[in-house]
């Protein structure tokens, strides 16, 4: 299981072992922040389900009643599209093909991408449509590589901070013109929002994310393990793994690489101590919501 290589894809497991330390995922922690855009997106998914599946929910209303129908519409945001990749799955595919290209210098084959798309999208996905989209986004990433000629030191680096109880995976450590970056990929299939404005990454989220990774205590040289429970992600760490750990590579700045079908742009991010302090405040807010708040209220007065 162990190797001396920095940057190995995480292994998804069902549950931790008895001697494992369980750590919150950085992205799960940041989920405690208010996200107005996500609220709008969730409402939009419900509206789409109401319009696109009118016959389904009307039949459900007659057969199962109002409560079950409302629940089905409410949970539309959790259902994957039938014929297209979800935004998350598209990001995963684009991330993997771009990472492969950056490390090997050769564009992944159509078969490689098709296996990823089929594995995440299922048998009903419109394979040609999604593969063409992935190919276009890979070409935009290729344009970016030609413009900036980054030198990659490592990708998919899992970092841990047991002192604060968190872990996560940094997409890449790379250098451009002598500047050392810790980088994160962000993707979207729609380059413009509903107002016709070009979409950009959310600095209030990715800034905290990169700061948390940058100032983690050490990095993995083994295949990391993680699991999900109640839509929250956790990483696990054994004593043997901790003994093998190495320092997190030093960087000068953060970088978010934003890939759409129309462009690939990279935005420098100040992920220094100020951003890290903000992340630690966010961590405590998450801890309050998930743990401490559940202990502060007593029984009703009598």
TrEMBL record:
Keyword 4Fe-4S: no
GO BP field: DNA repair
Record domain PD-(D/E)XK endonuclease-like: where: 75-217
One MF annotation (Gene Ontology) recorded for this entry: helicase activity
SUPFAM superfamilies xref list: Restriction endonuclease-like (SSF52980)
Name of one Pfam family that matches: PDDEXK_1
Record protein name field: PD-(D/E)XK endonuclease-like domain-containing protein
Organism per entry: Mycobacterium botniense
